[in-house]
Amino acid sequence: MTRIQMLLLALLLIPAVTLAEGGLVISDAWSPEAPPGRMMAGFMELHNTGEDAIVLVDGESPLFGHVEIHTMIMDEGVMRMRRLDELAIAPGEVVKLRPGGLHLMLIDPQQPLALGETIDITLIDEQGERYPLVSEVRERTRPSMGD
Ligand SMILES: [Cu+2]
User: Fold this and answer.
1) What are the residues whose beta carbon lies below 5 Å from ligand 1 (ion)?
2) Cα 103 to averaged position of ligand 1 atoms, centre (Å)
3) By its UniProt entry, which InterPro entries does this protein fall under (predicted)?
């Protein structure tokens, strides 16, 4: 079985919404397509359905060298990305990662990814709790993340 076939099989077995142990519901995860070798972004909704704050501090993916949590800031009239050490989600809060704002940065791609393919990503909180998700590669929309 090829890696692509395995990814497609995995997609069939994973529901669109993943309810993790810690009460973090992750939905509508997607990544704009990018030229081979370029870093990619990850967008999604994060809903903390639990009683306690969830503080995400890290991420990882088998398809990328490393994963960072980024935000966008205005710097002398130019939008720039900045790495966040942590992303806190209060109980009941929905945080949206979307183009032009908060996003995951998927750095050092290990293989080309075509439209419709999926990326396994795991978010990790400060207590070491892991929140797996699957991001679908979709067409790039405006506003663009650039790279
Ligand atoms: Cu970024």
Assistant:
1) 70, 81, 105
2) 6
3) LpqE-like, Lxx211020-like, PCuAC_sf
For ligand 1, the distance from its centroid to the CA atom of residue 82, given in whole angstroms, is 7
**Nearest one of 51, 44, 18, 34 to 101, comparing CA atoms:** 44
Instruction: List, for residues 26-75, the tens digit of each pLDDT value.
Output: 999 999 999 999 999 999 999 999 999 999 999 999 999 999 999 999 99
Joined together, the tokens standing for residue 17 give: 């919404």
Domains of the chain as residue ranges with CATH: 3-138 (2.60.40.1890)
